[in-house]
Structure formats: structure tokens, C-alpha cells
Amino acid sequence: MQTIWKGAVSFGLVNVPVKMYTATHDNDIPLRMIHRKHNEPIHYSRTCPKCEQEVAWEDIVKGYEYEEGHYVTFDKEELDELASETSREIRILDFVDLAEIDPIYYQRTYYLSPEETGAHAYRLLVEALKSTKKIGIANVTIRQKSSLAAVRVVGDVLSLVTMFYAEEIRDRKEIPNLPEAEKVDRRELDMARMLIDQLTGSFEPEKYKDEYRERLMEAIEDKIEGKEVKVAPEVKVTNVLDLMDALQASLKQLQPSDHTDKSASSSAGGAKKPEKRRKPHSKRTGA
To answer: What is the pLDDT of residues 75-99, one digit of tens each?
Structure first.
């Protein structure tokens, strides 16, 4: 696993030297843009519209358009200096309860591991956060971008979650077509609560699958083998006008069937197991 950042977690006068690693990875299947006629990948070039020539990376700077057609520009060294990334510090400002933070603020999660000289301080911070059930709210700069962040424990590992600042969260008043507050029908509310109770369980992330990815991998394998691509069956949406009918139908779907022929099941040696779907391969292997 590649280190993407080195620095220290600081709170008060305590410094915990750490290395940062990405905690997640993109599992999308890479699809390139192909010219339909020649079956060749499309390439892009960095071209200046004024001289109509390709521009080398060393000749590119970043700029802010303060008036139409007028820019102030910054080279990499100037941006690095402004970002203060040389401080390499995850500075904890406050400790708060996890439940206080709305998930809308979260961006991306990273793991933090201790440097060789910081193992003791690292373990101390982990145990302190676990025992107090708190998380740290910190400032950090990663790759020239300053972020708010949450430092918390995942298992026995320190993690850092970059967060949006308050001004980056859009005001809910901007959302169109929100219904006005009104009194909810008591019977509908009771039915909705029953439906939620029926569907309530423990969070088991491994049981949720990326069905689109599975279908795409199967389609890729079918195309490689020259087979006809199977299209996912269309989901029929029933237009239920009465909300109570929809709630009752949903609850009925979740109830076990009362018409199961138990004698037939026992004589057949138990219920028939559903056939396993062919598991798609993430990569095609040669013969």
C-alpha cells in the first residue's frame, strides 16, 4: 500500500507521527472511449487555442479569472507555499461526539499508521478516543487542498475522514418542490412504522452488492465469448394511488406465506436451493 502523506496528529502539546493511506478504492470497471468506426481509443491533448499547439506540463500554470478574459496566475511553488503543506500537521481543534456530525459533511476516508518513533503515542490516542467515545475535529492540507477532517478510531486503527466546511453545504431552502409541513394521517404513520420495523436489522455491509458491476462484468465476458448479451429484466412499477394500499401491500410482501406445502417439502428432502449465478471474473485470464 502506497503512502500518500506523512506528518503528525497533534492535540495540545502531543505529537503523533503518522503515515496516511487511502482506506477505500474505486471498484468501477474502467471503460475507455472508442472511435466506433476504427475501434481505436480516443486521446486528448492540452492545446492552446491561441497558438493552436500542444502545451507541455512545465508551461502550464493555474489561474483565476477575476474579469472576463483576465487572469491572475499561480505556479506550483506559490500554491504549495499558500497551502502550508510543509507543516505536515493534522491539528485537532476540538473533540466531539460522533453522533453530532451529520454524514452530509463526510468526504473520503484514510487510514493513519504510526511512524516507528510514534507507536506509543499512537496507541495512547487510539485508547483515549475509544474510552471517551469522542472523535477529533481537525484541520489538514492534502495535495494543496485544505480540509476540515474527523480523526476517529475504526477497529484499532486511527482514521481520518475529510469533511466539507459549513459554507460548502448547500442551504436546504435551495431545494425545489419540497412539500409544506402538514399533519400526517395517524393510520398511515403507524403502517409506515410497522414497515420500517419489519425491514430493520443490523448493518452488514458485505451483504450489499454492486449489481450493475456484476451485470457489466457478465456482459463483458459474454461479448468476449461471442455470446448474446443478456439484458436485465425491466422492473414493473405499479402505480398505486392510495398510500395506505401501498403500505399494506408492502407489509404483506414481507410476511411469510401461509400456504407452504410442508409435506411436499419434507418428502423432497427439504426446500430446493436456488441455482447459483455464474460469478463474473474481474479479469480475463489466458488459457
So the answer is: 888 887 777 655 688 999 999 998 9
Tally Cβ neighbours within 10 Å of residue 36: 6
pTM for the model = 0.68
Q: How far is CA 124 from the centre of its chain?
A: 29
- Is residue 260 predicted with pLDDT exceeding 50? no
Q: If you search the block for the grid coordinates 492534502, which residue do you land on?
A: 142
Distance of CA 101 to the CA centre of its chain: 17
**C-beta separation of 90 from 138 below 8 A:** yes
- In this predicted structure, the answer to whether residue 273 has a pLDDT above a threshold of 80 is no
> Alpha-carbon distance 122 to 157, whole Å?
9
Average pLDDT over residues 29-39: 90
- Mean pLDDT, the chain, whole residue set: 82
Domains of the chain as residue ranges with CATH:
5-25+81-166 (2.40.290.10)
Contact yes or no for 217/280 (Cβ under 8 A): yes
Q: Are 89 and 149 in contact (CB under 8 A)?
A: no
**Is residue 212 helix, strand or coil?**
helix
Helices (H), the chain: 76-83, 119-132, 186-199, 211-224, 243-254, 262-267
Report which residue type is found at 71.
Y
Mean pLDDT of 143-153: 88
Give the mean pLDDT of 214-232.
81
Place of cell 410482501: 253
90 close to 10: Cβ distance less than 8 angstroms: yes
Per the rule left: phi > 0, alpha: psi between -120 and 50, beta: everything else, 253 is alpha
> Which cell is 244 given?
395506505
CA distances (Å), 205 to each of 115, 200, 201, in order? Answer: 31, 14, 12
Pairwise CA distance, residues 116 & 18, whole Å: 9
Cα–Cα distance for residue pair 222/229, rounded to 1 Å:
6
